[in-house]
Amino acid sequence: MFWLLNLPLPWMLGAMAACIAASVSGLKIGMPRWLRSGMVVVLGVMLGSSFTPALFDQIGRWSVTLAGLIIYVVVAGGATYFYFRKVAGYGPITSFFTAMPGGLNEMVMVGGAMGGDPRLIGLTHGARVMLVVFILVFGFKFYGGYHPAGSAGAGLSILHFPLLDLAILTACGVVGASGAIWLRLPAAPLLGAMIVSGVVHLTGITASRPPSELVAVAQIAIGSAVGSRFVGVKLAMIGRTTLHAAAGTVITLGAAFLCAGALHALTGIPTQALLLAYAPGGLAEMSLVALALGIDAAFVATHHIARILMIVAVAPPFFRAVGGRRKLPPERPPDDD
Question: Is residue 120 a contact partner of residue 241, using CB atoms and an 8 Å limit?
Fold first, then answer.
């Protein structure tokens, strides 16, 4: 339906919208972890194909924007924590891990282990990703002067794909994802596949991108995974949580707008690319938006990876140091009614 209506990113947004509607209607849907991981590997290989030798000419400017992420995380995270703590009324543990602009799975696991409400943390992060994707995609379409550039960075049809290139890309996904999982890296399937694919494309071994049909299926899987996060939660709690998540999204997205404007003036990098690089909409989702809009996906993905690594590495030990001294009690999940 989204494709027939000529809406942007139809495979991802259409699947996301349908699964959200099914979830709030009470249908028991779900995305098997192995299927989502497999499709994320496809996306990782596709993102790696965006890394070309011209990348080396941009590294100097990228260092400035990567450093700016530190300011963004502190400002956006601090302001959002204040909102969730003082306005939404969440406990300090839940507020902290809900306010972090990235690392959804890691924040749910660590926040829950420290006594926060993992359901509330996960639902808020899921709502934030959904809201950011819809806001930016339709904002770019109607106000940004951009139009979708084909099937989000896909390559040839699988019917005409060279077998040697298909074997090389498959090896990139398998080796990269397996190695990253073994090293226990965050977002391992995507990050590992992207790194190995990036090396292969930077060295000129192949210039091919994954087949267009496979990329479309990967987008459907990613959209469905986001939409199915609302399964099993009562409508009243979804509405209440989404309302607070929307307010938090305004804060974090507003901070991303300010950072994008300031860094554009400083570096000359297009504001649209900076906004997607800083927007707290999820690595896979924002990278797909960049590919669909013809924006430098390597730049966007690199900044999201850096932000996730920063949050995952710093946020839990920081909270342990602060919360451990205060001996915060576990926070009970709120009633669903």
Answer: yes
